[in-house]
Amino acid sequence: MDMLTLDYIKTLLPTRPDESHKMTFGNVLNIAGSINYRGAAYLSSMAALRVGAGYVSLASSSCVCNSITAQTPNIVTIPLVTQTALMSSAITSTAKIISKLDQYEHTDPEAISVDAVKQLWVKLQQTSVVSVGSGLSLMGTDDQPRSPNEPQNDSDPQVQQDNLQLKGNFDFFCHLMKAIETSVTKLILDADGINFYAKMIQSPNDETLPSFKLPTQSVLTPHPKELSRLLAVDVTDIQQQREHYATLAATKFGAVVVLKGHKTVITDGQQTFINSTGNSALAKAGTGDVLTGMIAGFCAQGMAPLEAACLSVYLHGLAGDLVSKQQSCYSLLASELLDYIPKAIQLVLQKTA
Ligand SMILES: NC(=O)C1=CN([C@@H]2O[C@H](COP(=O)(O)OP(=O)(O)OC[C@H]3O[C@@H](n4cnc5c(N)ncnc54)[C@H](OP(=O)(O)O)[C@@H]3O)[C@@H](O)[C@H]2O)[C@@H](O)CC1
Ligand SMILES: Nc1ncnc2c1ncn2[C@@H]1O[C@H](COP(=O)(O)OP(=O)(O)O)[C@@H](O)[C@H]1O
Questions:
Q1: CB–CB of 32/80 below 8 Å?
Q2: CA of 223 to the centre of ligand 2 (A)
Q3: Tens of pLDDT along 148-203?
Q4: What is the pLDDT of residues 24-39, one digit of tens each?
Q5: Which CATH number fits domain 2-139+160-352: 1.20.1090.10, 3.40.50.150, 1.10.150.120, 3.40.1190.20?
Q6: To test ligand 1's pocket by mutation, which of 160, 223, 237 has the most ligand atoms within 8 angstroms of CB?
Q7: Domains in the chain: boundaries
Q8: CA 230 → CA 142, 197, 200, 249, 285, distances in Å?
């Protein structure tokens, strides 16, 4: 186990040759965001650009893409066909409307259609790295009231697993992961992408859950609760032995694992690093989406997943430390963290000189 040091981080920053163009610095396809989590799509895409990726495309539903385009001109958007768009084009009579509405009653109106995978097919072949999951809603919690006679212990990881219900973009995600399995080498899997993978791993005999393999160079970015779902281990145990469980997951899933939180653990199962930067300012909704985008952005520049994860986690924490110095650790917004990434990179570069 090694602490991440500035000396080591200095050696990781990718070079920026003068003889270059945007594609020299990689192409990220970010599949992120959903009707309630548009901000996650913005934060992750912008973070990939902020660390130097040459080209970032956001693939999501039209409502997400429209919101992002209204906020920034920097992200190329790929609006994906939604289930409701297909549904309305298929509806021709009132009777059909009623039967279809019944069928889609519990569906997110902006849920992406499985046909969108065909839309993405060529792009998947051309892209150097794909990030999936930030704000892409696949799961909900089963909030059904329970009978008082049937108490359940919610801290039991198995109960947490059972309480996760598939919804929203689930069908699209399953087809997408099958396509990624055969066409993508570098994948960053975040948030509900991890929750789905956990459900798949924990329920190998469930035929309603199509299985997929992670690409050879994958990064999983769980927070402790997500890792607890992946390993079916209580979150308290995870927090007591963070390095142990992160390493176990990396070995089990053949991926780099970034176990987020104070002293983030980064491991490929053989080498393990502990982050030395960051503070409670980062405990704010959306900062994890920024981290996912940073890892994707560095991977796109040709970095190996372990190194890209170490560099991203360190800079993300350093950006949080710079914020804290200027404005305390109370007030950071995840969107402001994006503005501190250049300052963190500059600090590392200055130390290099
Ligand atoms: N602006 C946007 O668009 C934003 C979009 N976002 C997107 O929203 C999606 C869902 O994100 P989310 O925040 O709703 O769910 P999630 O983080 O799984 O928390 C659920 C529960 O897990 C637990 N838990 C969490 N962290 C923990 C920890 N470190 N250690 C231990 N436990 C921890 C905690 O449970 P508790 O401990 O309270 O029982 C918590 O209540 C996701 O796609 C994301 O990308 C967000 O990034 C926000 C900004
Ligand atoms: N107390 C803390 N100290 C250092 N880093 C923290 C702290 N709390 C959260 N972070 C960092 O902030 C990010 C939070 O990510 P995550 O839990 O996925 O939140 P979200 O889903 O809202 O983006 C992670 O990179 C995590 O390491």
A1: no
A2: 8
A3: 344 445 555 555 555 555 667 888 999 999 999 988 889 999 999 999 999 888 88
A4: 999 999 999 999 999 9
A5: 3.40.1190.20
A6: 223
A7: 2-139+160-352
A8: 18, 7, 9, 8, 22
Cα(284) to ligand 2 centroid in Å equals 7
Residue whose CB lies within 8 A of the most ligand 2 atoms, among 287, 321, 322, 333, for a mutation test: 287
Q: How far is CA 94 from CA 42, 87, 89, 90, 106, in A?
A: 38, 13, 13, 12, 20
Ligand 1 binding pocket includes 293 (Cβ within 6 Å): no
259-280 as b/e: b if 16+ CB within 10 A: bbbeebbbbbbeebbbbbbbee
Q: Is the dihedral of CA 248, 4, 29, 18 positive or negative?
A: negative
Query: Does ligand 2 lie within 6 Å of residue 289's CB atom?
Result: yes
Q: Residue with the nearest Cα to atom 24 of ligand 1? A: 225
